[in-house]
UniProtKB/TrEMBL annotation:
UniProt entry keywords in alphabetical sequence: Glycosyltransferase, Transferase
Enzyme Commission number(s) of this protein: 2.4.-.-
Protein name, UniProt field: Glycosyltransferase
The keyword Glycosyltransferase is annotated on this UniProt entry: yes
Classification lineage: Bacteria, Bacillati, Bacillota, Clostridia, Lachnospirales
A GO molecular-function descriptor: glycosyltransferase activity
InterPro entries: Nucleotide-diphossugar_trans
Organism per entry: Lientehia hominis
Length: 347
């Protein structure tokens, strides 16, 4: 079993209502900005929220930043991991070590919105009524505040939103009570899950257990301006991760979900915006969409599994990669200007 190395002895108690679990890797500036905003905006909740940073960076820059914040904030916990640990393994370790009643697995690219937390999350969280709070910023099925006790509609309507970090808040027991045997069974079954082990484990767990969940729709996050483009986009592996791997792990889920698996595969691309022209242009600009990949995934049926209109992937080949890059940069520039204007108007 993996042994974690801690930068400081853990002096946290079990009295926190929520633990924000934050995996990070080689992004010290993004994390520094995250911590600065978090400290400033969540100051009134520091006695109720624990922030745990789980770092496997290649150098100690991130560690120095976190420890500097820890000197003034005892509600921050830092755990150092080997640099070669798989993301899924790190997340599993982190969630099993949660100290609070609830845990919220988040990305360092998105900073929780204080306004939304106060208005939409905290009033529900403090009741300690639900096992899972499913969070989304879109509501494609008009299910805001819908409660779930049935696995099938919860899978059909919510799986897409739980593929990204930040999409759910879990009661500690969901990960905390897992036995070593169960853990190894899940890791073996979903060994090729890549970044999808988190939602796969949740749906595997509730398959044979009673659970109580609620959907909350709100603007939960603000973008971290220091976070760079996702590695799966820059590396050109978008179709592999969100196409081949996603379809494979959904097929591996328990047979209870079989009737809805085809629907769910397409819902991930539709509801997350991956199949939008803007995101496809971005994929084209980074080399994720080229003739070799599109032909491969058309022949093996992946494109038909993730989209009702696989032709749009082929249409991207008509746009030169350089032109797609210009379009992407223009959009990013326009988005930054819009955010700047919003900031000015808010002042």
């Amino acid at each position: 079993m993996f042994k974690e190395n801690r930068a400081m002895k853990d002096e946290c108690s079990d009295n926190y209502l929520l633990e924000i679990v934050l995996p990070t890797y080689n992004r010290p500036e993004a994390l520094k900005h995250y911590l600065r905003i978090y400290k400033k905006t969540f100051e009134g909740f520091l006695s109720k929220i624990l922030l745990s940073v789980h770092d496997s960076s290649l150098n100690d820059d991130t560690e120095k930043i976190v420890i500097s914040f820890m000197l003034e904030n005892r509600n921050i916990r830092y755990v150092k991991y080997p640099t070669d640990i798989r993301l899924d393994d790190k997340v599993f370790e982190a969630l099993q070590a949660v100290k609070a009643e609830y845990c919220w697995l988040c990305s360092d690219g998105c900073i929780p919105s204080y306004k939304s937390f106060c208005k939409d999350i905290y009033p529900i969280l403090k009741k300690k009524k639900y096992d899972i709070l499913y969070l989304s910023q879109q509501d494609p099925y008009n299910t805001n505040l819908k409660e779930y006790r049935d696995q099938i509609p919860f899978f059909k309507e919510c799986f897409w939103g739980m593929t990204g970090y930040g999409g759910s808040i879990l009661r500690r027991h969901i990960y905390g009570n897992i036995t070593e045997g169960e853990r190894e069974r899940v890791k073996t079954r979903y060994s090729e899950a890549s970044a999808f082990l988190y939602p796969c484990y949740i749906y595997d767990y509730i398959c044979s257990r009673n659970f109580f969940a609620v959907h909350i729709c709100s603007e939960f996050y603000d973008n971290n301006v220091e976070k760079k483009t996702s590695s799966w986009m820059v590396s050109g592996s978008a179709l592999y991760i969100w196409g081949e791997v996603l379809c494979k792990v959904i097929d591996l889920l328990p047979t209870l979900y079989d009737d809805e698996k085809s629907f769910v595969k397409k819902s991930v691309w539709t509801n997350t915006g991956l199949s939008s022209w803007r995101r496809l242009l971005a994929m084209r600009s980074y080399g994720c969409l080229n003739a070799k990949r599109i032909i491969k995934y058309y022949k093996n049926g992946i494109l038909n599994q993730i989209s009702d209109n696989p032709l749009r992937f082929a249409m991207m080949l008509l746009i030169p990669k350089s032109v797609a890059g210009i379009c992407r940069k223009l959009y990013q520039s326009r988005k930054r200007m819009s955010q700047d204007n919003e900031s000015i108007n808010a002042c």
